[in-house]
Design a protein that fits this description.
The chain is α/β, with parallel strands linked by helices. Helix content is about 35%, strand content about 25%. The structure holds adenosine-5'-monophosphate-propyl ester (PRX).
Amino acid sequence: MSDETLSNLMHENRRFEPPAELAANANVTAEAYERAAGDREAFWAEAAERLDWGQKWDQVLDWTNPPFAKWFTGATINASVNCVDRHVEAGRGDKVALHWVGEPADDTRDITYAQLLDEVSQAANALTELGVKKGDRVAIYLPMIPETVVAMLACARLGAPHTVVFGGFSSDALASRITDCGAKVVITSDGGYRRGAPSALKPAVDEAVEKVHAAGEVEVTAVLVVKRTNQDVEWHEGRDVWWHDVVGNASKEHTAELHDSEHPLYVMYTSGTTGKPKGILHTTGGYLVGTSYTHWSVFDLKPETDVYWCTADVGWVTGHSYMVYGPLANGATQVMYEGTPDAPHKGRWWEIIEKYGVTIFYTAPTAIRTFMKQGSDIPAKFDLSSIRLLGSVGESINPEAYMWYREHIGANKAPIVDTWWQTETGQILLSPLPGVTAGKPGSAMKALPGIVADVVDDEAHSVPNGSGGYLVLKEPWPAMLRTIWGDDQRFIDTYWSRWQGLYFAGDGAKKDEDGDIWLLGRVDDVMNVSGHRLSTTEIESALVSHPKVAEAAVVGAADDMTGQAVCAFVILRDNAGDGGADIIQELRTHVAKEIGAIAKPRQIMVVPELPKTRSGKIMRRLLKDVAEGRDVGDVTTLADSSVMDLIKAREDAAQKA
Ligand code: PRX
């Protein structure tokens, strides 16, 4: 974020008080902050009472071996039972759990909690039949269809940790995740619908499994395939099975076993500062407490009357915590939509809100900016009066987008909760509470009750109000990651080694004069593109794996729509000449193949040299200046300062062309 934007933000003095009616009936009031500060563990124990446990815990938190936390030690619990069975047992079986909306018009399904229980039980029986046992890993590579939720809950039921891989990732990315966590079964579909057309998924799984087997470390014994689009699929007899055959014909009776509170629930891969994605491990009891409590408090969920909709794809952590585990544990009724916001028309989301009477809506700033650009006349055509609360996640919401969201979607009355959290944190940690906190456009405000966050300087001293520094967490929280799958040392090094006893989130932040927190973006080599995390190093490795590329440097440059955009600078190998007329396209396609379409650079520049320090470190800061069209800053630490002139000359020539 530029200094100018920052100082504008600091002068933001608009305040939006909680609506009186919401405040009067809010699930959580100001008292929660004091209670949690008085006895944090007692506070989380009370939150845990909202769930059904088998054996109760001996200890709320075991922090004797930091940074390896154990929450609710000795307790037993089943996440799937908490998300499904207990609502049916309480007589709410006929309540709709999912209003599923397919992308093709009129392709919808309403699934009640009782139906969900039947399907989850069938899927659990089918997975058992396929040899999945407690502790085995299962990879899920599916579109936004009900079977995805069913598959996750079936894995959770069996205690088989799932790793859901976003359907936009390539076969290479899928293969590396299957290998890293040693998944023995993959659940996928023939395809899904996107922008009005079926797009295939199964071929990527076939390729991925082939790669995994060629590497020889892991064996995928079964691929379970949902028929969604009726596309032709290549079939591997003995390995591939249809979902409708094995799940559809399985028994609807399944008795769930209780698992230890610390039993692994899932692994979610996310980008770090190296080329290798990190498998973030979440476990069961604490994760479910953290997500269900925050879903209930931050969104002020009234399960009897609210219709909740989180637009995130289930392939990301937001889909896990605030579409699957949090809302279902709370017995919510929610919308799940398969497709893109503009298919078949730009008002699709608003049409869905009108149809189902959505009351709580949770999305990302990048989507809001896209709608702003398309014009407020589009949402104005729909009745959005059911909306009573809006949420934002993924990056700081810029004040313009906040105001537009408030006015055109929230009718100038619905409060906006700007929720800061991460794949690693599992649950929302910073956010206004809608019945308590006056919202400021652009600020995530402060740590939720039970969470201890701060902004510190290089020496880990808390900065005074009005100053900036690094966002840290000072105390463990229930849904925190437990480790990086298979790599405890990387877990320690990445999050806990910068300052003794503090979790470093990787984000810069500032406290305003009231002590409220404003997030300023990543301070490491991680980019945030449309609310998704991408690693500069990972994209650089993808580029360098192309035979024509000698070296590459990637930076995240400011972008009006996506927050940041991927910009790459590459040096070609001598024997590649000028790379040929299609070199840029060739490299973009190559990145999509290696990682996925989301990682495709917006811009690639072929350059003769890269700016490096005398010790050989690439100075990405200077490349960012070029990519953002600024004058290049201080070049005195460069080994060869004429390099920047050469790069600038190329950039200018490219601009003219
Ligand atoms: O930089 C922060 C940004 O997204 C990062 C976490 O990305 P990921 O693990 O992919 O999870 C995204 C969804 C939780 C953070 O380190 N971020 C997320 N939410 C916000 C945010 N930055 C500012 N404000 C937010 N509300």
